[in-house]
Amino acid sequence: MQTARQVVLAAALVAGGYLAARYTGFWLIYPFYGAALIAMAQVDLRERRIPNRIVYPAILVALGAGVVRPGWPASLAGGLATGALFLAPVLIFGSRRAGIGDVKLGLFVGLALGFSWSLYWALLVAFGSGLVVGLAGILLKKWDRKSLLPFGPFLALGMGVAMLIRVLQVGSVG
């Protein structure tokens, strides 16, 4: 019975993402994305994990919305590329140095933004801000070069900036 509920909920999230993107532009999707990003960033800062109960629904909504915007091929390419980008350190260094939650969050960001300049800017802001904060922590002697820094908040910031750039470029969210 639990599995049937999960399948129905998953289908509803995908359909809801599709319908919201198709008929309302992104004025319903971006606030949802923003709320999910804020929640994931807060939990990652506090507990050093990305909660599945937030990231999985976000991925499903992004899958549904991705059919409309940025388009199915671009959405899948962005999700797979970004997920792979974050999976590589997990495979190379193990899950103690890099988290699988970041892989799932990267998948969400890639699906939502698609393989586009928006994704490029999101990753640039994420890695750039992470670098600045990490270097500041080292220079202030709060961390050393082996300290672990939760990356979810930086990825959330990057996607937030990318969404804002899209809104400003288009003049509206849709």
Give a structural overview.
The protein has 174 residues and is mostly helical. The chain has one domain. It has six helices and no strands. Helix 1 packs across helix 3 (52-93), helix 3 packs across helix 4 and helix 4 (100-113) packs parallel to helix 6 (152-170). It is globular and about 50 Å long.
Helix share bin: over 70%
The number of distinct structural domains comes to 1
Structural class: mainly alpha
What can be said about the biggest beta sheet? none
Overall radius of gyration: 16 Å
| SSE run | HHHHHH
Which term fits the overall shape? globular
Number of helices: 6
In short:
With 174 residues, this protein is an all-alpha fold. It is 80% helix and 0% strand.
How are the SSEs placed, and which strands pair?
Layout: H1 2-24, H2 29-47, H3 52-93, H4 100-113, H5 117-139, H6 152-170
Keywords:
174 residues; 0% strand
